[in-house]
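Before relying on records like the one below, remember that each one covers exactly one chain. Contacts with other chains, cofactors or solvent are not represented anywhere in the record.
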Amino acid sequence: MTRSLMMLAMGVAIWTGAGIEAHGHEDGEQVKVLSVHNVKEKLDGKDAAVTVVEVIIEPGKAGLSHRHPGSAVVYVMEGEYELGIDDQPTKIYKAGETFCEPAGVLHRVSKNPAAKGRTRLIAVVLHPRDAKQVAVPEPTKK
């Protein structure tokens, strides 16, 4: 069911030229916006959109801590992916598995734990239309 929902979301999403960024920082993730689609549903009273991104992480590489402005459903297309949100223990997902991230949680671990082979994810993020980024970098603590 989750896989069917993911495929449906990817199939109906279309590029609208909304100018949304996937990341506003340099890290170990290669992120490509595949599509942005405005939807009629509202989030906390705001107009909403769905952004579909592809994330590629080379072996042993990791992304920086960030938050998403809306909920994300992620499908692991290839390899393994280690996820850590808020203060929860990290979990490793393998190709063919899916997971959800609630809006606003700290995505503190995002990495490819493998010594060989890349990680490839497809993420569908439902967010307010006025969001400028679907992954907002967490400020570094000094």
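Confidence is low (pLDDT under 50) at residues 1-18.
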